[in-house]
Amino acid sequence: MIRRRQFLTAAPAVAAAAALPMPAIAQSSPELKWRLTSSFPKSLDTLYGVSEVFAKRVAEMTDNKFQIQCFAPGEIVPALQAADAVGNATVEMCHTASYYFVGKDPCFAFGTAIPFGLNARQQNSWFNNGDGSTLFNEFTDKYNIVSLMCGNTGAQMGGWFRKEIKSLEDMKGLKFRIGGFAGRVIQRVGGVPQQIAGGDIYPALEKGTIDGAEWVGPYDDEKLGFAKVAPFYYYPGWWEGGAALCCMINKGKWAELPKHYRAIMQSAAQDAGNWCMGRYDQQNPAALKRLVAGGAQLRPFPQDVMDACWKAAHEIYAEESARNPMFKRLWESHSAFRADSYLWWQVAEQTYDTFQMRQRAKG
Amino acid sequence: MIRRRQFLTAAPAVAAAAALPMPAIAQSSPELKWRLTSSFPKSLDTLYGVSEVFAKRVAEMTDNKFQIQCFAPGEIVPALQAADAVGNATVEMCHTASYYFVGKDPCFAFGTAIPFGLNARQQNSWFNNGDGSTLFNEFTDKYNIVSLMCGNTGAQMGGWFRKEIKSLEDMKGLKFRIGGFAGRVIQRVGGVPQQIAGGDIYPALEKGTIDGAEWVGPYDDEKLGFAKVAPFYYYPGWWEGGAALCCMINKGKWAELPKHYRAIMQSAAQDAGNWCMGRYDQQNPAALKRLVAGGAQLRPFPQDVMDACWKAAHEIYAEESARNPMFKRLWESHSAFRADSYLWWQVAEQTYDTFQMRQRAKG
Fold first, then answer.
1. Subunit contact B271:A275, Cβ cutoff 8 A
2. Cβ separation B356–A350 shorter than 8 A
3. Which of A192, B88, B108, B156 could pair covalently with B240 via S-S, beta carbons 3.0-4.6 A apart?
4. What is the nearest CA distance from B20 to chain A, expressed in angstroms?
5. According to the model, what pLDDT value does residue A20 have?
6. What is the pLDDT of residues A206-229, one digit of tens each?
7. Does residue B123 belong to the interface with chain A, where contact is any CB pair within 8 Å?
């Protein structure tokens, strides 16, 4: 059942043993210093914080023998070059969202989220207990990367808009700051996806250079102050129903580690990942209250927008599957897991949560 | 923010240093053998399996120096004496559901679940990122127990009934196999809670000695074959919206561990806990399909049953809070977290899942 473990402890180590020089590590618990480059700025204290929690856990578990130093984007490697830097061993590892690299290959999306994909718990289950990690690591192996899931944001918000979106018609020509796979979906329903770095979004919204922008969820969004210039705050973020984060580790460096250090990194990734999801679940409610008190107006995406985006996303999955065999394998595994998961989810989870919300609303 | 860590790495170690003999452990990574007694039979391969995954992780991370042997209930300690055996150091640790011990003190419920309490992700967040672990460990400290959360079942099912429950009236006099806190709620709405061990439930349902029985969810329930004798399968299990499992460790034994072994146990508990939740999320859907194909008839609890049980549960919380100050602190923390959590949950999480289910139903 523990396919993730089987893959990570057996396959890469064996493969690497043939291709790499013998590790220069004689002691059973050697002193090591690694560098981790994060793709997230320190101001996003949860996304960046995961890497620090991860490094702290590894240090604690090795009696401070294995030290991992974390760097913000640009300190040693730019945010979007993290995977390249790991693959060519400029740094030993990074912490990132793998879908930043869909420009190389759309398969990278499956390590984070795809539009209308799995929610956070389902993504964990698919990756750790199902086929996810085995397939995704088969894919990243050709980039010399070993991938460990490490964190999740939960279902994100759908972003901030200057004007209300009342129907699909309002998406036509809409300049919306959104990246990667989701941008392709937006384009197909008539929108104009825009790639803008975090710090440039606010002035672009203020001037009207763009009409809307997505970011993460209440806790992270609050820091950027979008409510003042684009007050309509939409949900759900259908392109990130449970966005996972990822530790990517250079394959050769991974193979050189003593086996128990690899085990420690695996459990540290799970532990830091739980810290991340738990912190979002703890911080988002209060941030949402502050945002609404400060003028944010919550709106659900209209049904026809949701339906059109679903259709567009699934057209893209069919097209990618036709031309990319690895994408096809990942998509078929992911979507089969989704169909089964939601069959069960609607019975106990959803009815429990729905009742709890109703009681809350009644006071 | 990392209150769990602050408590677990600082407070008990300091307190124990004064009260306990110096550890007999000179080496920095000593060879240790511990015994873990599980409260779950081996036939429940996920609930029992968590303890084996936990022990395997600890062994892997210590290069096999720290070996924990797992025992099924009755092999060395009966299922429901696990906490006592840990407190008096008969065994070093157990893996259990803390609410088995509500007979000692109802505060034990907060380490697992309370009726209409937090869902699985919220329970993780409250325990690990919020005040949960700090408060719960303050409570279990007087039993000489250090508690680490380790696993969750997700929202459970509401059990199997010989006849349909069409309204609250049908609960009157109903003999329902259910334990602990939830049994008190059932009693207050007119039912007759029954305490029956797992293996005795089937014949009792078959003969009509009882009218219904709750167990866990599809994957575990399937093994007991209730569908044949009590085909009405109700949801949601409002007494266990996210039932957490727990590693309980003898306080003195914990204090004797080298600091990095304690850190390893903490991350192993998180990692094994994720394995548990992920395995239920992976196994329940297929089990549900098999159960329905085999004759199980899914039914939601009627609204008036849900409302009456909610009211009864909250009366009990008020009564316990009036007589038990620790219960009051735990309940106030838990319920405040619940109110905030569901405010946020209904925005992005619930609307995302609802849309996904609708699309699934449409094919």
1. no
2. no
3. B156
4. 23
5. 44
6. 999 999 999 999 999 999 999 999
7. no
CA distances from B224 to A305, B196, B241, B268, B293 (A): 45, 14, 21, 30, 16
pLDDT, tens digit, for every residue of B166-193? 999 999 999 999 978 899 999 999 999 9
- Cβ-defined contact of B353 to A116 (cutoff 8 Å): no
Tell me the C-alpha distance between A332 and A317, whole Å.
10
As a whole number of angstroms, the distance between CA A80 and CA B19 comes to 53
What is the predicted pLDDT for the residue at A286? Answer: 97
- Could you tell me whether strands B244-250 and B93-96 are parallel, antiparallel, or unpaired per DSSP bridges? antiparallel
Q: Which residue of A has its CA nearest to B156?
A: A348
Helix/strand/coil for A24: coil
Tokens of B251: 């306080």
From the list A217, A213, A234, A238, the residue with the least C-alpha distance to A314 is A238
Q: Is the CB of A293 inside 8 Å of chain B's CB atoms?
A: no
Do residues B320 and B331 touch, judged by C-beta distance below 8 A?
Answer: yes
Q: At residue A280, does pLDDT exceed 80?
A: yes
**Chain B residue with the nearest C-alpha to that of A151:** B274
- Count Cβ atoms within 10 A of the Cβ of residue A169 and give its class: 0-12 exposed, 13-18 middle, 19 or more buried: exposed
Quote the DSSP letter at residue A170: G
First to last CA, chain A: 44
ipTM: 0.93
Residues A286/B285, Cβ–Cβ less than 8 Å: no
For the stretch A168-217, pLDDT in tens is 999 999 999 997 889 999 999 999 999 887 788 999 999 999 999 999 99
Contact B274 A350 (CB under 8 A): no
Nearest-Cα distance to chain A for B357, in Å, is 6
Q: Do the Cβ atoms of B154 and A241 come within 8 Å? A: no
Is 60 exceeded by the pLDDT of residue A106? yes
Residue from A281, A289, A362 whose CB has the most chain B CBs within 10 Å, to mutate: A281
Task: For the full predicted model, state whether its pTM sits above 0.95.
Answer: no
Q: CA nearest B66: which of B22, B13, B27, B17?
A: B27
Q: At what angle do helices B132-140 and B325-345 cross, to 10 degrees?
A: 160
CA-nearest residue to A280 within chain B is: B125
Among the listed ranges A293-302, A315-324, B1-10, which one has the minimum average pLDDT value? B1-10
Mean pLDDT (chain A, rounded): 93
Task: Name residues whose C-beta falls within 8 Å of residue B214's C-beta, 6 or more positions apart in sequence.
Answer: B156, B157, B158, B159, B160, B176, B177, B178, B182, B237, B239
Q: Tell me the backbone φ, ψ of residue A79, rounded to 5 degrees.
A: -50, -45
Q: Token pair for residue B75?
A: 């092999």
Does residue A60 surpass a pLDDT of 80? yes
User: What confidence score (pLDDT) does residue B18 get?
Assistant: 41
The per-residue pLDDT for A199 is 80
| CA neighbours closer than 13 Å in the CB half-sphere of residue A255 | 21
Q: Where are the alpha helices (DSSP H) in B30-70?
A: 45-61
Q: Are residues B347 and A235, on separate chains, in Cβ contact within 8 Å?
A: yes
**Residue A250 and residue A284: Cα distance in Å, rounded?**
34
Which of B150, B276, B282 should we substitute to test contact with A (largest number of A Cβ atoms within 10 Å)?
Answer: B282
Among A29-38, B162-171, B188-197, B237-246, the least confident range: B188-197
B154 and A CB contact within 8 Å: yes
